[in-house]
Write a structure and sequence with these properties.
By secondary structure, this protein is an alpha+beta fold. The chain contains eleven helices and seven strands. It has a domain of about 140 residues: Butyryl-CoA Dehydrogenase, subunit A, domain 3 (Up-down Bundle), CATH 1.20.140. The relative contact order is 0.11.
């Protein structure tokens, strides 16, 4: 396996380091101490838009047509797109994972829209993100009070009514929902039919019946909002059904949802590695500052942390490399998510042991990282769920 990246990626990583140190980490620490998300009108977000960030990967209808009309070039070397992405998100999380999620952009639903959306839907919902005139967000509404890890158990209902759909239900822990232009909501035509009855709907902000927004108070990752909201007879046009009804004849809706999560698991794992790296660097700096590197127990803790992080990082890169080779990586994606999340918690815990009573003050970066990393074991499928996925795959059981 070759994890080498090009000069452009190395330059990108260097830019992230500079901006992370001067911008992301300071604003993330401020959000944590204030106990609230970065406001949507904060100048930091406007600065990102001025730099050309917060844009969609979609190239526009004309761009798509031109790409399709050009003959495919034979690659001189395999793609490294996924590996590159993992290295980038690891570096972003090193400086502040909460700020990374808070940044403007389409976010999690983009994969589903690119895979299933009609041209008209891409134009309507991704078009404003081609060259945004202001900070814009979108979000993905899947998790519910009674359905998170078991995505097939959602209870939000959708009922056809002429040229519209009527949605009723509640969602929770949805990132950036109050500030999003639209939310891609997962709903079911019949809860008793499980996955086959699921559909995805675009609900635009301000739609009657969409409301009850409440930003949850979290123990970590406070820079971005995790939101609960409800839909009460929320009426959306039939054109807002992702991909159109014909796309759901073979459980495409649920498969598309799972595809988004499968693609996201190595990313979450890389986030955990990034947070862990930050904890190790801070712990090493603390030990140097307090002349504790001569203590064999301190060196043992630092060695453990570095070794575990390298293991987790290599698992992430393997999952990404397999994706770039267009080879199956279902087990590896779950494996790296499970291991990296656990390692992130272990490493930040070791850091807390090292700084001792300083960690109890609540003003040390390692204490913040200790709180931040816990979510990496929860988001996009808990560690328990990943072990179920791996077990079923390894034993050859039905998915």
């Amino acid at each position: 396996m070759d994890f080498a990246v090009d000069k452009s990626t190395l330059e990108t990583l260097e830019r992230i380091r500079h901006r992370g140190k001067t911008e992301a980490r300071p604003i993330g620490l401020e959000a944590d101490r204030l106990g609230r998300p970065i406001p949507a009108d904060d100048p930091y977000f406007a600065k990102l838009i001025e730099r050309g960030e917060g844009r969609t990967r979609w190239r526009g209808l004309e761009g798509e047509k031109k790409a399709k009309s050009k003959p495919r070039k034979t690659r001189s070397r395999p793609s490294t797109r996924t590996v590159t992405t993992l290295l980038v998100v690891e570096e972003l999380a090193y400086w502040d994972r909460g700020v990374m999620v808070a940044n403007p952009g389409v976010g999690l639903p983009e994969t589903n829209v690119l895979a299933m959306g009609t041209d008209e839907q891409k134009e309507r919902f991704l078009g404003p993100f081609l060259a945004p005139d202001r900070p814009r967000w979108a979000s993905f509404g899947l998790t519910e009070p009674g359905a998170g890890s078991d995505a097939a158990a959602i209870q939000t209902t959708a009922r056809k009514d002429g040229d519209h759909w009527i949605l009723n239900g509640a969602k929770c822990f949805i990132g950036n929902a109050t500030r999003s232009d639209w939310i891609l909501v997962q709903a079911t035509l019949d809860p008793s039919k499980g996955r086959a009855a699921q559909r995805s709907f675009f609900i635009e902000q301000g739609t009657p019946g969409l409301g009850g927004f409440r930003i949850e108070k979290k123990m970590g990752l406070k820079a971005y909002e995790s939101t609960s909201f409800s839909m009460q007879d929320c009426r959306v046009p039939a054109a807002n059904l992702l991909g159109g009804e014909e796309r759901y004849a073979t459980r495409a809706g649920f498969k598309s949802t799972l595809k988004a999560f499968n693609a996201g698991r190595p990313v979450v794992a890389a986030n955990a590695v990034g947070i862990g790296r930050a904890a190790v660097d801070e712990a090493l700096a603390f030990a140097r500052e307090h002349d504790r590197l001569g203590d064999v127990r301190v060196r043992d803790r630092l060695e453990q942390a570095a070794r575990k992080l390298k293991m987790a990082r290599l698992l992430c890169l393997e999952a990404g490399w397999l994706a770039d080779q267009q080879r199956p990586n279902r087990v590896e994606a779950s494996m790296c998510k499970t291991v990296a999340a656990r390692v992130g918690q272990d490493v930040t815990s070791l850091g807390m042991e090292l700084i001792g009573s300083v960690g109890a003050r609540g003003d040390h970066l390692i204490e913040k990282l200790y709180r931040d990393v816990k979510a990496m074991d929860i988001v996009e499928g808990t560690g328990q769920i990943q072990r179920i996925v791996m077990g079923r795959e390894l034993l050859g059981l039905p998915r």
